[in-house]
From TrEMBL:
Its EC number is 2.7.11.1. ATP binds at residue 83. It catalyses: L-threonyl-[protein] + ATP = O-phospho-L-threonyl-[protein] + ADP + H(+); L-seryl-[protein] + ATP = O-phospho-L-seryl-[protein] + ADP + H(+). This is non-specific serine/threonine protein kinase.
Length: 338
């Protein structure tokens, strides 16, 4: 391991207070999340220096399990994005996944489209240790214009996230908090409710084909305002029975061999594979939900979805096969020479 003698850059002074103060009664950022608990979030402050190295310059975003901050590395004089996990997220696979990615000696082109992890550390929070991850450099960010903020008390301030202008370049994969290793067996619950594939909803073992189902969900979301599956019952509560009933409406009855793989199939079907009708099958189709979609490639788009949305995971295409789908390839064809 090469050694060097870094020359520390001076810390940037941040005016205090220099923020637009938000009324304390208004819920903002992570406070709006249904699972928000203040004590689980590290009370980061702009201008604070973590690990004697990373000076917090601006807030970039927030979520259920973390907040993300633009920091200035005062040792190497560059900008980084720092992800601070909430307290209690002890079993996240993100660090092991990044370690695996960094250890792989490969020329695969996909490695160029993954945000690299170059450091991780632990900081003391009010409720124990919070796992923190520093990702690869964010080259440009404005730290001169302070964000509006809400002061909770002398120890905690909620900052609003900076809006970063989009730049040129390819998008990068940068969140592996829910990643799994493919050589291990999985049956745990994953994904937001309405995005879960049938094998997850029905408590089966699952593999990488769950991602193919999810690609269809994300593709639909890029075109439509509402998610493809709703899954809510008459009480506006998400209900797996409603979710599966919607799947049956779209895909038709599942194959008997698929039903038998489920540990909970008896909650939906009888021993002969007949729907118990505890929840009625709705009269909806993929075509009816897509009635407002316009464009000459609409039919190709729906065919793309139908390829990915299969009951049997083994009948879904691989990622490589889906990549060459007509809908994705449109506009990328190499023109024929005259």
């Amino acid at each position: 391991m090469a050694s060097y003698s870094p020359v520390s850059a001076p810390r940037h002074p941040f005016p205090v207070p220099a923020f637009e103060l938000i009324d304390s009664s208004e819920m903002i950022e992570e406070e709006t999340l249904p699972t928000y608990c203040a004590g689980k979030y590290y009370p980061a402050h702009i201008g604070e220096v973590l690990d004697n190295r990373y000076q917090i310059a601006a807030k970039l975003g927030y979520g259920v399990t973390s907040t993300v901050w633009l920091c200035r590395d005062i040792i190497q004089s560059k900008y980084v994005a720092l992800k601070i996990y909430v307290h209690g997220v002890d079993n996240s696979p993100e660090i092991p996944v990044y370690n695996r990615i960094n250890s792989e000696e490969t020329d695969h082109l996909g490695k160029n489209f993954i945000r690299k992890l170059f450091n991780h550390l632990y900081i003391d929070g009010p409720n124990g240790l919070d796992e923190t991850k520093a990702f690869s450099t964010v080259e440009k960010a404005e730290i001169e214009t302070p964000s509006p903020s809400k002061v909770i008390d002398q120890n905690r301030t909620i900052y609003t996230s900076q809006i970063l202008l989009p730049g040129n370049g390819f998008p990068l994969f940068s969140d592996f908090g829910e990643a799994r290793f493919g050589n291990e067996s999985h049956d745990e619950d994953i994904m937001p409710n309405m995005y879960r594939p049938p094998e997850v909803v029905l408590k089966m073992n699952w593999d990488c084909k769950v991602d193919i189902w999810n690609i269809a969900m994300v593709a639909w979301d890029t075109v439509c305002r509402k998610t493809l599956f709703d899954g809510r019952n008459s009480g506006n509560i998400f209900d797996d029975r409603v979710h599966v009933a919607e799947m049956v409406a779209f895909l038709g009855p599942p194959p008997a061999e698929f039903i038998k793989r489920s540990r909970v199939f008896s909650a939906f079907w009888d021993d002969n594979g007949v729907w118990k009708n505890l929840v009625p099958i709705p009269y909806i189709t993929l075509g009816s939900l897509a009635s407002d979609i316009e464009g000459e490639d609409k039919e190709d788009f729906l065919l793309f979805l139908r390829r990915a949305l299969k009951w049997l995971p083994e009948e879904r295409p691989t990622a490589r096969e889906l990549l060459s789908d007509k809908w994705l390839m449109k506009g990328l064809e190499i023109p024929k020479r005259v």
